[in-house]
Amino acid sequence: MTAAAGGSAPGQPWWKSAVLYQIYPRSFADSNADGVGDLQGVIDRLDHLEWLGIDGIWLSPITVSPNADWGYDVADYRGVQPDLGTMETFDRLVAGAGQRGIRVLLDIVPNHTSEQHPWFVDSRSSVTAPKRDWYVWSDPKADGSVPNNWVSSFGGPAWTLDGTTGQFYLHNHLSEQPDLNWWNEEVRNEFDAILRFWFDRGVAGFRIDVCNIIVKDARLRDNPPATPDDDFEAQLFGQRPVYNGNRPEVHDVLRRWRLLAESYDTPRALIGETPVKVEELAKYYGDGSDELHLAFNFPFLTAPFDATTMRRVVEDTEAHLPPGAWPAWTGSNHDMSRFSSRWAEGDPAKARAALLMLLCLRGTPVLYQGDEIGLEDFPVSQADLRDPLGVRYWPAYAGRDAMRTPLPWRHGPGGGFTTADTRPWLPLGPTGRCNVETQRSDPWSMLMLARDLIALRRQTPELQTGRYVTVTAPEGAWAWRRGERVLVVLNMSDDESTLTGTTGHIHIATDRERDGESFDGALTLRAWEAAIAEIR
Ligand code: GLC
């Protein structure tokens, strides 16, 4: 089987001209009224995704999991989680998507498994178990304490003592998520086989979970203390993650996977979850053609939505990426507050500007389900929390449920996500105006803006491949050119803003009344208005 072809630009690898869309399967569409979204639900909505112009979907984990971390604790890398469907449903999904020119990418979690994975069950059974060395085990210090100072990114020590053998095992997340030992060649071989298993079923690529931390320091050295220059997380944990992540050897694994991905007729794409600074991010592209195809840009995702900061992050990214490397842009995901809440603070004008930005930068945009209708976070009550982080840290931190609530397909009970009398696994937010059906019949909606921008991208080679060049703009505005003739302007201020020295016509403005408008010598945008134009 080959991964189905979509509408890519001539001479371009498909993932460069694609618009990707992240599906969080449990919250996308529930086909069997059990309150949990499923793969059949995705199949049922493929026509909608095709209509929207999506080239590829990335599904958050669909593999077998006891759900300590909702799929990110895998108990079988080759099986489909029964809640979500069967392998037969999955195969129908790949086939149905392929018929519509949509590729299917999966999430792979190589850093850790579930504690219930048979490998870990074996590994923890004795120090001589065949899979003992597949995980990271270490003796306590002489005083019985943890082997080193590493902390879990979910808080607390990264080590748990296992009574059976008296050694600690490493976990960079929950204690139910033991870290694999990537120094072990058998682990590497096993993951090669897992990648092939899915690639051979027609999977077009993987989003690689916490791909920057899979290899740890072989000597398990202590992390150094954080300094004031370090990022928020380092400050929070009091240490700089030098030895439990971003090790040079992770690049060997990525090079190996790239070769594997490129060994297929239609090369498979590797997208890394890489929560690192821009300079470090660049390294995950290797020489630009031998590691990740795309790496998620967290400095961009977490930047405040102001013209100077966003412009700087994009310019830095453009400057640091090696030749041939291709950026990826995203504003939301299942871990981060949605951009309509975080960047736009509920202001539709800002959300529309953010959407236009994402779809007009040089690189591959990855929308998160709901971005296209301007869905906002929906804070759930303590009683409804499902995310282990929310449960653990409430009320100081409510966790990630607010960005994982079901997608509203139409107004009314169940929201078209599930039936009216079914209680969804996470509560459904308000369905009033923010739902797919209502927005599909409103030419001025966020959804129609998304669809029209995606269509424009497909028709406009500059938007797909043209280089990014910053254009000098008044304070509070950010403007860039794509190629020679396409101009993108965002007025990210509360006042009117005029870009001078430019003549042309607007293709699409966030105020749709202005689509097609000509300008001669200057382009004026109202507060938080954005436009993409053709210039002469
Ligand atoms: C990634 C996932 C997140 C998960 C964590 C542990 O950051 O995006 O949802 O909790 O890895 O697997």
Helix content: 25-40%
Determine the structural class based on helices, strands and strand pairing. alpha/beta
- Per the principal axes of the C-alpha atoms, what is the gross shape? globular
Strand content: 15-25%
Descriptive notes:
The protein has an 8-stranded parallel β-sheet with strand order 11-10-9-5-2-1-13-12. A 6-stranded antiparallel β-sheet has the order 14-15-16-19-17-18. Strands 6-8-7 form a 3-stranded antiparallel β-sheet, with no helix packed on it. The mean pLDDT is about 95. The chain contains 17 helices and 19 strands. It starts with 13 loop residues before the first helix and ends with a strand. The protein is of the alpha/beta class and about 525 residues long. Helix 6 packs parallel to helix 8 and helix 13 (about 350-360) runs parallel beside helix 16 (about 445-460). Alpha-D-glucopyranose binds near residues 173, 210 and 273. Alpha-D-glucopyranose (GLC) binds next to loops.
Give keywords:
single chain, 536 residues, alpha/beta, 8-stranded parallel sheet, 6-stranded antiparallel sheet, 17 helices, 26% helix, 17% strand, binds alpha-D-glucopyranose
Short overview:
By secondary structure, this protein is α/β, with parallel strands linked by helices.
Which SSEs are present, and which pair or pack?
Layout: H1 14-17, E1 20-23, H2 39-44, H3 46-52, E2 56-59, E3 63-64, E4 76-80, H4 87-99, E5 103-108, H5 118-123, E6 137-138, E7 159-162, E8 167-170, H6 185-200, E9 205-208, H7 232-237, H8 250-262, E10 269-272, H9 278-283, E11 294-295, H10 298-301, H11 307-320, E12 328-329, H12 339-342, H13 348-360, E13 364-368, H14 388-393, H15 436-440, H16 446-459, H17 461-465, E14 468-471, E15 477-482, E16 486-491, E17 497-509, E18 518-525, E19 530-535
Parallel strand pairs: 1-2, 1-13, 2-5, 5-9, 9-10, 10-11, 12-13
Antiparallel strand pairs: 3-4, 6-8, 7-8, 14-15, 15-16, 16-19, 17-18, 17-19
